[in-house]
Write a structure and sequence with these properties.
The chain is mostly beta strands. 4% of the residues lie in helices and 66% in strands. It contains 4 helices and 49 strands. It is globular. Belongs to the TonB-dependent receptor family.
Length: 783
């Protein structure tokens, strides 16, 4: 920390050295009809040489610029209002402009009023921003439902998140790591808690280096409206998908208090069908396996916090998030064995009752200091997460052919807990008119404990009993410099991360320590081809560290014939990522094509191996390299004010190479993903949204995954002057959400079909207190 303070003092000194003669430009933005001031309006100041500065008006509608003398033009933009332009004027002294009067934008369409609103998906140079408030399909759902509607993102039926078909993605919450992003924990977060999702495919040095595919940042809601505001959401579904959510906030000049309290109950019906064919000594035997599962989750969560505006330049923010999940499974397994003559000679029935109460807590404290110098800022964050879960499995097994009266009873218990501390401090200092430096330090400290034991027929099974200790300490620092020269922008950065990771068991059967330090350079180049067209070239080096469950060599015993275990010797993999992106907007049409290439070393993949008993064990291992290159296009077209069409398409080829235990695992394939969305809006009548997502078949190092597709549809109607909304959703419209996989090896053949959830319907009602729907969606760009 001493070094950080010294650096800050050093860069504070630049302020006096780089100061130029600047004048103050002030003004106010008001509604042309009501004459009320408009907060959070975007105000753009453009000089005669095309340099731009952007600010947002404060709660009183006031905006302030500090700029050198010259000729300028002012443009004012705000959702639901017509843009306004203040023509060229000269700034040679401190100047106060006349109030800018904004007129509400109303377009006539068959005698139906349409109010312009912010696009659901914003395409920016460094990220894609998905504004959840506009999304009909995710109302009443979870974070997984939202992510499945985000361009380039997919969440499979097991809750695994992938970006551009690559599951090496880091998911953050409010810009910080969270254990809620692991093991399908995102299904616990209600969509009502989420404001927006940011997708960053090639992050700068300011972001953590973890995640070879990039970063997805989930931003939780925080109030931006003055006074008392709130909303109540009630939802029901079939199969059961019920939710109750209350959002209440209060804001004054000194404080901003916000809260979100929710409850969800979900029933999920899943099934798995598997066919195995094994060859031993030229004798072929088969196994037909049938699994039927019912899961119910009851989830309680609360998110409360507040901002305290110490003064105009200092803000303190504190928040607390609590999540309790009661997760229950009941699964019936049937194993039907056939001999070489294909006659059934054995049937085993197995029943599992799984119960897992889980508690997650996160305390967060943020401090932000701004300065007289524009865009100069110092931010410090502290977060403490602590969670625990208690996994209990009760398994009964009986042989019914030939019949055996004995029933074996298996009980397993895994008590897990973790304490995580996250500390971060960032400093931004502009230099001159068009340059700035950024630097920061960060520490991520995690201590995770697992106590696992197994009892079979009331006898402790020592070989399946153990305690694990996992400690992960990451320390990082970064520095980056950015500047603009006419139409050319660049940002160059360097990040260093020190990793100190240890996993060990109390029996001393293994103890593994990983210590390494790495450098992660980044480069972003942007050229403004025209006012509405930009070309960006970017590069970053990334890392994928194995997760705890990928290192843990112990597995649950739900299905002894198909086990997944970790590998404590697994090493991190490194990716060099290159991307060329064009961002163009022409009136009603916008397009964002990208070409990308990723080269990964020490690539790790899950390998399936058969035991002598014809059981199968899946474990992650390090292979050699992976090369992935593709083309992605995101486009939006609005032919009319009532209709918006969007299409996201991603095609990529990949080549994976490596050898493990003398077996060569080389594969080369290509596949594609697409997501079509259409939004139809007839205000005061009805709004509708439809999405269709398709993923082509994909050949991995061992398994072939067949093509998948799914469609969702939603309708929304507003009542009582937009204070109440009623939404009806149908997810998995064609009941097509199925994962089919085939593994064809010399001595065995596997074929599986997994259905995680059939078609389901959800009805959601939202009532807003003290604000309308459009007012609730007016959020400042800085949030």
């Amino acid at each position: 920390m001493k070094q950080l303070f010294l650096l800050i003092i050093l860069f504070l000194g630049f302020e006096g050295m780089t100061q130029t003669n600047e004048f103050t430009l002030k003004g106010k933005v008001v509604d042309s009809k009501t004459k009320q001031s408009l907060p959070y309006v975007t105000v753009i100041l453009q000089s005669s040489n095309q340099d731009k500065r952007t600010v947002s008006s404060d709660k009183n509608g006031m905006y302030v610029f500090k700029s050198p003398p010259g000729n300028y033009q002012l443009r004012i933009e705000f959702m639901s209002y017509k843009p306004s332009v203040v023509n060229t004027f000269s700034l040679q002294k401190d100047l106060v402009l006349k109030d800018v009067l904004l007129e509400e934008e109303i377009n006539q369409l068959n005698e139906v009023n349409v109010v312009a609103e912010k696009s659901a998906v914003e395409l920016k140079l460094d990220k894609k921003v998905f504004n959840v408030g506009k999304d009909i399909l995710s109302k009443g759902g979870s974070a997984n439902d939202i992510l499945n509607n985000v361009p380039s993102v997919n969440v499979d039926i097991a809750g695994v998140v992938s970006l551009r078909g690559n599951n090496g993605v880091t998911v953050l919450i409010n810009g910080k790591p969270s254990m809620l992003t692991a093991n399908n924990g995102l299904s616990q977060i209600s969509a009502a808690n989420i404001e927006k999702v940011e997708v960053i495919t090639n992050p700068s040095a300011a972001y953590e280096a973890q995640g070879s595919a990039g970063i997805i940042n989930i931003v939780l809601k925080k109030n931006s409206m003055q006074g008392f505001n709130g909303s109540l959401q009630v939802g029901v579904g079939n199969p059961a998908n019920h939710n109750l959510n209350a959002n209440v906030s209060y804001k004054t000049e000194k404080v901003n208090l916000f809260s979100n309290i929710g409850y969800r109950y979900i029933d999920v019906y899943a099934s798995n069908r598997q066919f195995q064919q094994n060859t031993n000594n030229n004798v072929v035997t088969t196994l037909h396996q049938y699994d039927d599962n019912k899961r119910n989750n009851s989830i309680y969560n609360i998110y409360i916090g507040g901002d305290y505006y110490i003064n105009a330049k200092n803000t303190l923010t504190g928040s607390y998030y609590h999540d309790r999940n009661n997760n229950n499974y009941k699964t019936a397994y049937t194993y039907r064995y056939s001999n070489a003559a294909q006659t059934t000679d054995s049937i085993i029935n197995r029943f599992e009752n799984y119960k897992e109460p889980k508690n997650y807590n996160a305390l967060e404290l943020n401090y932000v200091k701004t300065f007289d110098k524009k865009d100069k800022k110092w931010t410090t964050s502290l977060q403490y997460d602590f969670w625990n879960d208690d996994e209990n499995q009760y398994i009964d097994q009986q042989k019914t052919l030939p019949y055996e009266p004995e029933v074996s009873n298996l009980y397993t218990r895994d008590i897990e807990s973790s304490n995580d501390i996250f500390i971060k401090s960032d400093f931004v200092n502009p230099i001159g008119e068009n340059s700035k430096i950024e630097m920061g330090i960060r520490s991520d400290l995690r201590a995770l404990r697992s106590d696992y034991y197994t009892i079979l027929d009331e006898v402790l099974q020592d070989q399946f009993t153990n305690k694990l200790k996992y400690d992960e300490n990451l320390y990082s620092a970064y520095f980056q410099f950015g500047s603009k020269i006419k139409k050319f922008n660049y940002l160059v950065g360097l990040r260093t991360e020190l990793s100190d990771i240890k996993i060990a068991d109390t029996k001393n059967t293994f103890s593994n320590t990983k210590n390494y330090i790495n450098l992660f350079p980044t480069l972003h180049l942007v050229y403004n081809l025209t006012e509405k067209t930009d070309l960006q070239l970017s590069y970053s080096k990334r890392i994928n560290r194995p997760r705890f469950w990928q290192l843990n060599p112990f597995s649950g015993l739900s299905d002894l014939r198909n086990l997944t275990v970790g590998n404590p010797d697994l090493n991190p993999m490194f990716t060099n990522s290159f991307e060329l992106t064009l961002l163009a907007k022409r009136g009603k049409f916008s397009i964002n094509p990208s070409v990308y290439y990723q080269h990964t070393t020490n690539f790790f993949e899950y390998i399936l191996q058969r035991t002598a008993e014809n059981y199968f064990v899946t474990t992650p291992v390090n292979l050699d390299t992976e090369d992935r290159y593709g083309v992605e296009v995101s486009s939006t077209y609005s032919p009319a004010n009532w209709l918006r069409l969007s299409l996201d398409f991603n095609y990529y080829k990949f080549k994976q190479q490596g050898t493990y235990e003398t077996v060569v695992y080389d594969v080369e394939d290509q596949t594609w993903l697409s997501n079509f969305r259409s939004v139809v809006k007839f205000p005061k009548i009805i709004s509708g949204e439809f999405s269709f997502k398709y993923r082509g078949k994909n050949q991995g190092v061992q398994s072939l995954t067949e093509a998948q597709y799914t469609a969702n549809i939603g309708l929304n109607r507003d009542f009582f002057n937009d204070k109440m909304s009623v939404t009806l959703n149908v997810n998995n419209l064609f009941n097509s959400q199925i994962t089919k996989q085939v593994v064809n090896a010399p001595l065995y053949y596997l074929e599986s079909e997994f259905r995680a959830q059939g078609r389901y319907i959800r009805l959601t009602v939202i009532y807003r207190f003290n604000r309308k729907k459009n007012e609730a969606d007016r959020l400042p760009d800085s949030m």
